[in-house]
Design brief:
By secondary structure, the protein is α/β, with parallel strands linked by helices. It has helices at 5-9, 22-33, 50-57, 63-75, 109-116, 124-131, 145-158, 194-198, 217-220, 223-230, 232-235, 250-255, 301-316, 321-329, 358-367, 389-396, 410-416, 430-440, 462-476, and strands at residues 14-17, 39-42, 80-81, 95-98, 120-123, 136-140, 163-166, 187-191, 206-209, 242-245, 262-263, 276-279, 282-285, 288-292, 339-344, 347-351, 372-377, 400-406, 423-426, 446-449. α12 links the parallel β10 (242-245) and β11.
Length: 482
């Protein structure tokens, strides 16, 4: 019998990069709990800066737990090579636990050299694949992977399947903390980034590729290298596995021919006999009509694509038609990602605070299927009016009645959008812009917050900005009579 991953690691000298980050700290805590004692950590922080970095990268932990973890790292059982001695004895390692972005730091050149000599590189994601007792439904892609993961998880749960979900950023509790509580009959839904795919030597049972756009080229060098990285999610699949690809995205569709797995593609432009598609205005699975596209409460092509990708994947993992339909009918969007914050007086209010760049905001603008008022702006260091061309072009084709600008970029945005036939105004802040927008909006119209900018001029982060918008919507609703 092949030894388990923990048996393979037992007795090895394991060096862990970045305990100030979520991945490094999670792997270290897991191995410590398993009795591993030949551990060394390396961090580019110093003892003086470690606490701030740890608090910033572990928002999912309670404050008291973060404080306890910081104290343990500063005085605990694992020796740490801080910034001045970073990687001082990395040549002694048999195994190096890396983080997602380790290759981006020039200081990690000795890690690359160690890998060339045959030192094993291990990631948290690979460890989860090796330890997970149940099948994995994994999603990657430039856009939509978090939404698809969330929807697929909801569909499985609605079907009575015991399912678990984990994202790939610092806001999520690492699934490694819970992997041994999973049962063989469960499903684990994972959002997987391009950086996680680079070192991954395993594929999910059901693998989803939402789309591929020329982002993260600083990680890969060329678009072709990015496509090759995304294709890794299918590389170790067999014919008994399932590959879900986007037929409307040429780079993704081209990979279908290379997949060994059973194909269950999706398309928002056509019917798909074995997968998810649109049949005469209906969302359909394997040719079975489930619900009209018009029943989706959040507009936009990307919303439909995400719904179809999740439906194709979840059905392959055992979700029923009824569960898929109920999940899609209830979909109001996800927090900070073009969600329907509420409808008051016939006006729909959409919150898209995570639209922190002009391209993301332009997608939300193009999704609007009714007259609307846009609230945009915030911080964008060195902003030029040309930077906002994607938003301006989207607005030129959209039924926008007014655009209200907030934050540091308001004057730049006003100049960028001068040619638009809409009311354009600089406002003091989000509250003032919302007040005017809600006064102007008529029944059958919408108010959209999609800033196209970061939030740090007037808010702690994009979450605080989005939460304020939702609070303002709630305040519009009539109070129940006593």
């Amino acid at each position: 019998m092949r030894p388990t991953i923990l048996e393979q690691l037992r007795g090895k000298r394991i060096h862990i990069l970045g305990p100030s980050g979520t991945e490094g700290s999670a792997v270290a805590a897991f191995l410590l709990a398993k009795g591993f004692d030949r551990l060394v950590a390396h961090d580019l922080q110093t003892p003086a800066t470690f606490a701030d970095a740890f608090h910033r990268t572990h928002p999912w932990m309670a404050p008291a737990a973060r404080e306890a973890s910081v104290a343990a790292w500063l005085s605990g059982p694992i020796p740490v090579r801080w910034k001045d001695d970073y990687l001082a004895d990395i040549a002694d390692a048999d195994v190096i636990v890396t983080s997602q972005a380790w290759f981006r730091h020039p200081e990690n050149a000795p890690v690359r050299e160690g890998a060339a000599r045959g030192v094993t590189l291990l990631s948290l994601t690979q460890l989860v694949f090796d330890l997970c007792p149940c099948p994995i439904l994994g999603i990657t892609g430039t856009n939509g992977k978090f939404t698809v993961a969330t929807l697929a998880h909801r569909m499985l749960e609605a079907a009575g399947v015991r399912a678990h979900v984990s994202g790939n950023d610092r806001t999520h509790v690492p699934i490694l903390d819970r992997v041994e509580t999973l049962a063989p009959t469960d499903w684990l839904v994972l959002e997987i980034s391009n950086r996680q795919l680079l070192g991954l030597q395993s594929s999910p049972r059901v693998a989803v590729l939402t789309n591929i756009a020329p982002h993260h080229l600083d990680d890969h060098g060329t678009f072709e290298a990015l496509v090759e990285t995304k294709a890794r999610i299918f590389r170790w699949q067999s014919p008994s596995d399932v590959a879900v690809v986007n037929l409307d995205d040429p780079p993704s569709a081209a990979l279908a021919a290379t997949c060994a797995a059973t194909l269950r593609p999706f398309s928002r432009t056509r019917a798909v006999p074995a997968g998810a598609g649109v049949d005469d205005g209906w969302i359909a699975i394997d040719g079975r009509r489930l619900l009209p596209v018009s029943a989706l409460r959040v507009p936009g092509a990307h919303t439909l694509e995400n719904a179809l990708a999740a439906a194709a994947a979840a059905s392959a993992a055992g979700a029923t038609d009824a569960a898929i339909t109920a999940t899609l009918r209830a979909l109001d969007g996800l927090p900070y990602r073009l969600r329907l914050a509420g409808e008051v007086g016939g006006v729909r209010y959409y919150e898209d605070s995570l639209g922190t760049n002009p391209v993301a905001a332009s997608a939300a603008i193009r999704a609007m299927d009714r007259p609307f008022i846009l609230i945009a702006g915030g911080r964008r260091p060195g902003a030029r009016h040309e930077d906002f061309a994607p938003m301006r072009e989207a607005l030129a084709d959209a039924p926008a009645r007014a655009v209200y600008f907030i934050g540091e970029t308001a004057p730049v945005l006003l100049r960028a959008f001068q040619v638009l036939p809409a009311e354009l105004l600089e406002m003091r802040n989000l509250t003032a812009a919302f007040k005017r927008a809600s006064f102007l909006a008529r029944p059958g119209e919408a108010v959209l917050l999609s800033p196209g900018c970061e939030s740090f001029d007037q808010f702690k982060d994009y979450r605080e900005r989005g939460d304020l918008f939702c609070d303002l919507v709630t305040a519009l609703r009539p109070r129940p009579s006593a």
